[in-house]
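Bumping with the actual sequence this time:
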Amino acid sequence: MADIDHHLQAATKENTRRSYQFAVDHYEVSWGGFLPATADSIAR
């Protein structure tokens, strides 16, 4: 693992990464959105 990868991995806890992934999945599946999202797509 490269040094930068190590630091990125250490920057957030596993639970935080799972929470972020759940939020992204929810947005994409439940709302049919794509990331990165535009302001218009979020407003809809």
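The tokens above came from a reply further down the thread. DSSP finds three helices and no strands in the chain.
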